[in-house]
Protein 1
Amino acid sequence: MKTYYDIVGDGGSRVLDQVIEQRARITDGLAGVRQLVAVGSGKGGVGKSTLTLQLANVLRCRGLRVAILDADFNGPSQARMAGVQGAVFVPGNRKVSLPRTGSGIGVFSMGSVIPESEALDFESAARGESHTWRATREFTLLTEILGSFEWGELDFLLFDLPPGAERTVQYADFLPPRTSFLLVTIPSEVARGVVARSVAALSTRSNRVLGYVENMSGYFCRDCNAIKPLFPATQSTELRIRCLGTVPFDPELALLCDRGIPLTEHPETPIGRALDDVAQQLLNSLESESPQ
Amino acid sequence: MKFLCVPCDTPMKLQTVGPPDRGSLSVVYSCPECGYEMAMLTNAYETQVVQSLGVRIGPENSVAASSPSGSGCPFTAMVPGIESGDARAGQPGEPVRWTAAAEARLANIPEFVRPMARTGIERFAKENGTVEIDEKVLDAAREFFGM
């Protein structure tokens, strides 16, 4: 009697072929993008989304073509911060045009699709068993977004990743291998410990890890015009990747983000200069030949 | 999964996939040698896992369940005021018409943004004093929204 491996093809649905076709659509859709950079951490609440958007703004100010894909489908924040919450999706000839900020940064965020009063949900006959299929469904959604929107010719596509060290490495597995990773931490041992796990997980993959940014590295006091410490100065957890810079916390920035106003309108602040330095380090790191 | 007709030792061929019934599919196979037919009645949970890959289950010309419920937008239930697929904005006054070419462009985009795209474009058209959406209106919207 024949065995499974004696029979060519599958049961008739060509499931594997369909998955391969999906991946080909992604490759095709991203063919015009020079740099794919995933901004992750592993830890939540360290400012990945804020840093992603502000880096995009700085890169855009340097004349680069930039887009952001908010991959945090369950907690999307880019739509509000980038001011595209009410974006209109316009069908192009083959794909959907990407909503853009006033400065021309393309942004896809589920926050433009689903109101903040609603949670992302999928219709399913297996609703009570979502732990078995939900992550797969979300990556399929990401596949659809990557294959259906007009990413066009870009210098940078920044992926704003969701928290979770295991999620970070899932994105490394899913995204094209040329995707580089930029990790974000804050000066707390707890956060550095989680980021260290992401570094360890990513070290088992072929993706390039560009380095990390220490966010909330002190706060900018406007009364005394100085950076003051936010966390105790201990860094016993070694991250073993390059530090691309430190960015202080600025309460004013939080306000701007909530209102969808880019910080680039206030470049001459410590945080504006810090972000510009990080952007330069990012560019230097990407231009250097050897992986970290 | 593959199916073998044991008496003929021949791979069975996928024939039809019935419409989903509470997440379960009825998948009919037949033996090309002896014509014997059998049906695989899928478990809703396993079916959901496979469909989460975003794949069609069934022959290529089949319209059966690429989404678990057989309906369109997976987010339909959550976006207020939006019905599945051919949703209308429900705005007062003269209804907006879509030309076949504009509809075709709309059909090319993912289902989960289609209702929002329709609503947004219809609003744009009305604000610009037009009641027929053709490709020129879509291009104008694209220009207007800086895309």
Note: Chain A has a mean pLDDT of 91.
Protein 2
Amino acid sequence: MPLWLEMQVLMLLTYAAGLGLGWLVFKRKG
Amino acid sequence: MRKRLGAAIAVLVQAYPIALVLSGAFAVAVIAAASTVAHGPALVAGIERKALAARDAAGGRGIEPRFVTASGALTRHAQLAGGERLDDALRARVAGAIARVPGVAGVSWLSAATGQGAPAERDKADSLHCQQDVEAILKVRTIRFSEASAAIDPASDALLDEVASALRPCLGSIIAVTGHTDAAGDEGANLALSRARAETVRWALVARGIPADGLRASGKGSQAPLEGLTPTDPANRRIEFSVIRKMPIRPTPVDTPGPG
């Protein structure tokens, strides 16, 4: 697996996780 | 100010949620690409340096780990090339040492000679396992011979039984039996004695059901003393086994090596 692809996958997954967490917090606050 | 910014974001999120998420993802992808360009070479160089040190520590000089994919991109996955003259057990050990270097994602062999794909890798692991079993048996006890003779001391019969049963899972492998002596006495005689002793052990194993054509006997005299020992140390008198590789047994009309 090339390094650039590894980096893309890792960072986009982190982004998705952050987005999901943000959405959960936002939803709880109303 | 913060309140207004928050409100603006809330409005944007409600109006264009998908567009915002996608543009965020795009920004992340650009940052990831930029950081690969900026830090990738240094990262891979660091991993390569550690991999080379691990290779040297495992005694695998000649094997080159390459951290480049077929298309030329940097990678943390090492592709190993070279070292064809090293035996398979050592190559497997070096590959293992490189694979354990922190940061290395995995290893694979580039050359077809060592076999590629899962079955070959599994066979190699089996062979190695066999050899480790034999080494473990011989670590605490040694095969004894009568003084200046190739006759195996009867006290070593039980030990040979154990060696034979440890080698049994490796049937189908080429197993090298190598005799060594210490440096006392004439080197020509030592060489002949070490060869004769290896041959005796080979036949003792054949007598215990190990196929003769999978066993190769050779002698090195005092040319390869144990690491850390002086050549004259009697502890250098020994028989070593190495499981070379897994291959189908092909019956040959003559299974003993010719003269020389």
Note: Confidence is low (pLDDT under 50) at residues 112-119, 248-252 of chain B.
